[in-house]
Structure formats: structure tokens, C-alpha cells
Design a protein that fits this description.
mainly alpha; 7 helices
Length: 155
């Protein structure tokens, strides 16, 4: 149910919310971020691939979102294990309440930056305008993290 809600919000609302063409929040990473720790790594990567595929099919983006979601899913367990001391004791979904607010913000910010950098650099398919990719990555990442933290605060 949550997956369907995230996909619909991204497609119907956030894909149309752009800041002067530079920033577009990609809040669907919320679904990947909030996956429980107990999900096996192979399943997490498969979920990331399928979520990315949905947005690639919707946007006709030829694997851009899929690659970024797989990278997100690959890095998430490693980053969480390094930031959270007792990650094995966390039950249920990952959020600010379960792993700590600062750990959640740090991991979300790093993973979102990596995800967005991959999305925008693969879309550009060139580093000739690398500064545009970096600006778009930073603005979109700040928007995405702010929206996700707002949602997390409401829970």
C-alpha cells in the first residue's frame, strides 16, 4: 500500500514540482530508505531495481532510475551499519524514531545525494556541464530530504 502511495505521489505531484527547472524532489527514495533492516540484501536490491524500473518506464529514462535505486539499495545497509551502533536490534522500518534522528538524517542525506547524482549525471550523459549536474543534484537532494524529514516528523 505504501509503495503505491509513494509511486502515485511521485508521478502525480512531485514530478511536476520543479524549482526553475533545477530542482525536482525524487521522494520515492523514501520507500527504499524505510525498508526494514530484516529484509535480505538480495531482496532489498531487487525491490530497488523494480522501483527504479517503474519510474524508468513512466519517464522513458532507459535504466537511469533503476541504476540509481540499485546503488541506493546496495549502499544503505553498509551506511546504516557504520552509522548506527546497534542496528541488529532495530525492528521494523528505518526512521528517525527507530535509529535516532541524527543517524537518520545523515544516512538519508548521503544516500539521497548518491542517488540524485547518479540520476542526473546519467540523464545528462556527459560531464561537459558538470556544474549543472552538481547544482541540480544539490537542489533536488535538499528538497527531497526536507520533504522526507517533514513526513517523518508527522508520523
Amino acid at each position: 500500500m505504501r509503495l503505491l502511495l509513494v509511486v502515485l505521489l511521485q508521478v502525480l505531484l512531485f514530478d511536476h514540482l520543479q524549482i526553475a527547472g533545477w530542482g525536482m524532489p525524487l521522494v520515492y527514495v523514501l520507500f527504499l530508505m524505510n525498508l526494514p533492516v530484516q529484509v535480505p540484501r538480495w531482496a532489498e536490491m531487487l525491490i530497488g531495481a523494480m522501483l527504479g524500473l517503474v519510474f524508468d518506464l513512466w519517464n522513458s529514462s532507459l535504466g537511469v532510475n533503476m541504476a540509481a535505486c540499485i546503488a541506493f539499495s546496495f549502499l544503505r545497509p553498509v551506511l546504516l551499519a557504520n552509522l548506527v551502533q546497534d542496528i541488529e536490534r532495530v525492528k521494523g522500518e528505518i526512521c528517525g524514531r527507530t535509529i535516532g534522528k541524527m543517524e537518520y538524517v545523515k544516512s538519508l542525506a548521503v544516500l539521497t545525494l548518491v542517488h540524485h547524482l547518479l540520476v542526473f549525471s546519467l540523464e545528462a550523459w556527459s560531464w561537459s556541464n558538470w556544474w549543472m549536474v552538481l547544482v541540480q543534484t544539490l537542489i533536488s537532494s535538499v528538497l527531497t530530504v526536507a520533504i522526507i524529514l517533514g513526513y517523518d516528523a508527522l508520523k
